[in-house]
Amino acid sequence: MDYDLKDLGLAQKGKLRVEWAGRAMPVLNLLKQRFAKDKPLKGLRIAACLHVTSETANLMEVLKLGGADVRLCASNPLSTQDDIPAALVKYLKIPVFAIKGEDHKTYYRHIEQALAHGPRVTMDDGADLVSTLHSTRRDLLPGIIGGTEETTTGVIRLRSMARDGVLNYPIIAVNDAQTKHLFDNRYGTGQSTVDGILRSTNVLLAGLRFVIAGYGWCGKGLALRAKGEGAHVIVTEVDPIKAIEAVMDGYEVMPMAEAAKVGDVFVTVTGNKTIIRREHFLCLKDGAIIANAGHFNVEIDIPVLEALAVGKRRVREFVDEYTLKTGRKINLLGEGRLINLAAAEGHPAMVMDMSFANQALSVLHLVRHAGSLEKNVYPVPPEIDQEIASLKLRSLGVRIDRLTPEQKKYLADWKEGT
Ligand SMILES: NC(=O)c1ccc[n+]([C@@H]2O[C@H](COP(=O)([O-])OP(=O)(O)OC[C@H]3O[C@@H](n4cnc5c(N)ncnc54)[C@H](O)[C@@H]3O)[C@@H](O)[C@H]2O)c1
What we know:
Elements: H1 11-22, H2 26-38, E1 45-50, H3 54-65, E2 69-74, H4 83-92, E3 96-97, H5 104-114, E4 121-124, H6 128-135, E5 146-149, H7 152-163, E6 171-173, H8 178-201, E7 209-213, H9 217-228, E8 232-236, H10 240-248, E9 252-253, H11 256-262, E10 265-268, H12 278-281, E11 288-292, H13 302-308, E12 309-316, E13 319-324, E14 329-333, H14 339-342, H15 349-368, E15 377-379, H16 382-396, H17 405-411
Parallel strand pairs: 1-2, 1-4, 2-3, 4-5, 5-6, 6-15, 7-8, 7-10, 8-9, 10-11, 11-14
Antiparallel strand pairs: 12-13, 13-14
The structure holds nicotinamide-adenine-dinucleotide (NAD).
C-alpha cells in the first residue's frame, strides 16, 4: 500500500489514542454503525486533506466503514500527530501522506499523492487540495462530483473562487454549520490554543496582558478561556460590531499599535494577513510571546521579523527567540503556525465529534445529489445541523422541550398581537 509517514512503529500508540478520542465521539460512533450497515459510500474515492489527528482518524474510519476508498494528507505541515498516520496505515489500511514538520515541497507532494486515485469527492481544510486541483491537476476535475470544506479560511477562498467563476465543482461549507463553528471554532480553538501556549511556554497566564487579534468565533472562545486563566484580555478588531461585542463582553479593545506596547502574550486569529508586522515588532515589550491560531502562517509577518532580528535561537521545542538590534527579545511560538495543533493536540474529540459528523453527512449529501448541484459553495443542509445537535444532546443525556401545537401555530401566525 502507498503511504508516506514518519514511523510505522508508532502505530500501537496511535491506535490507543484513536480509541481514546473515539470514546468522546458518540455522534460519529452512531454514524460508524449506520455506515457499516448501509455502505452508502461504496466504492467512492475520497481525497481528504485534514489535520492528521486522532479525531480525524475516527472520521476516516466512518468513511471507510461506509465503503469509501479514502486517501489522506495533512492540511498543515506542522499539525500531524505522527502516531496517527501509522495507526491508520497499519490497522485501517488507509493510505496516509503526512509527516509532522514536512517542508513545503513535501507538503505539496503529499497532496498530489492523496489525489493519485482520481477522487470523486474532496474533503479539505483550508482549500489547498482544491486549489491544487484547480491549478496543477485540472485533469482530475471532470471526475469530481463535489467537496467539503472544514474551516473559515477555506470557505473564504472557495467563495472567492465561486465569485470569480473558476470553481469547478460544488462545495459544502462544513464550517458554516452551526454545529461546527459555534462549538469547534469557539470552544475547540479557545481551549486548545491556551493548551498550545501552555505546553510550549509553561507561562502563568494569570495577571498577563493577553492580546487577541480577531473577535470572531475563535477569538471569542479564546478570550473566554484566557480570562478564565486570570489573564487581562485585550482585543483588536477591524469590525465595529465585533468590537462592541468585545467591549460588552468585558474586554479592553484597542488598535494593535497600542496593544503591541502593553501586551505580554499575543494570539492572532483573524484569517487575515500581516496582523502583527514591522511597526508592532518594533514596540513589543522585551520577552513578548507571539502566536497564531488562524489557519495560515501569514498573520504574523515572519519574513519581516527574520529580517529585523540580529539573532535567533530555539529556546524550547516550539519557541523561537528573536533578538532585535535593541537587545529586546521576541518569542515566536510554533513558527507562526496554528499553535493549538503545532504544540498541542488540536481540538478535543468532544467538539470534533460534531464537526466531523457534519463532514460525513455532507459527503453523503453530495453523493445523493450528485449532478444536481451547481459549481458553487453550499451551506450544510439545516436538517443535518439539527440532526447532529439532537444526537449530541441525546448522547449527553440532555433532554429539551418540544413546541406544543398551540405554540407552533402561534409562531406561524401574524394575526395574534397585543
Ligand atoms: N486553530 C484552529 O484549530 C482553527 C479552528 C477553526 C478556525 N480556524 C481559523 O481561524 C481563523 C479565524 O476563524 P473564525 O471562525 O474565528 O473567523 P471569523 O470570521 O468568525 O472571525 C475573524 C475575525 O477577525 C477579524 N479581523 C479581520 N482582519 C482583522 C485585522 N486586521 N485585525 C483585527 N481583526 C481582524 C474579523 O473582523 C473577524 O471578526 C480562520 O483562519 C480559520 O480558518 C482555526
